[in-house]
Amino acid sequence: MLQMTGVHVGYGRTSVVHGVDIEVADGGVTAIMGHNGAGKTTLLRAAVGLLPVRSGRVSLYGEDVSKLRPHQRVRRGLAYVPQGQQSFGQLTARENLQLVADGAGSAGSSRMADALDLFPALRELLGRRAGLLSGGQRQQLAIARALLTGPRVLILDEPTEGIQPSVVQEIEDAIGTLSAGGLSVLLVEQHVGFALGAAGQYYVLESGRVTRSGAGGADQEADVRAAMAL
């Protein structure tokens, strides 16, 4: 599992995350919710090593990875899909995937096949430049590319932002399939209904602090919305 214990993170002299404790269960989905500016993305960037932890500890399956570089954490089993449907726009969808598959050695081909099984619509788009795909298609491509690293924990930052509803459902279904297959997922999301529907546990982050946590499920939506004043 992924654990962050007493984590403080910031930029320059500005502190953004203040003593946060979260835990991602082995094979489960954990959601972090909160308004813009709550510190959600900052927390994720610290988890994958893109920002240093000022104090506290980031652990992956019991190993302290707080001092490891991002590529070392990837090798330990972390994969990160940042906000914004990022891809290499001038490359085709196939080339975007192949870049990662080539680095996976002999497992690359089978992982690519599994990723395309998860998002079958991408099969028809492999020859199209990524920059010409819709936002939803680029998001699916970004998740598929992350899966080619063979992660144990997949971290998704706002995967439904700006995505058409039909693709949102496909992404939710994919998260469920991955979790059922034993992959742990850490999901940052402002869409409360989506987050609680996908997650077995959740945390609400406000001003860099956890203000509420509990078991996921659609029946929690009214209480969480009230707590977030949505």
TrEMBL record:
The keyword ATP-binding applies. Gene3D superfamilies: P-loop containing nucleotide triphosphate hydrolases (3.40.50.300). Keywords: Amino-acid transport, ATP-binding, Nucleotide-binding, Transport. PROSITE patterns: ABC_TRANSPORTER_2. Coiled coil: none annotated. GO terms for molecular function: ATP binding. This is Urea transport system ATP-binding protein. Residues 2-230 form the ABC transporter domain. It comes from the Bacteria.
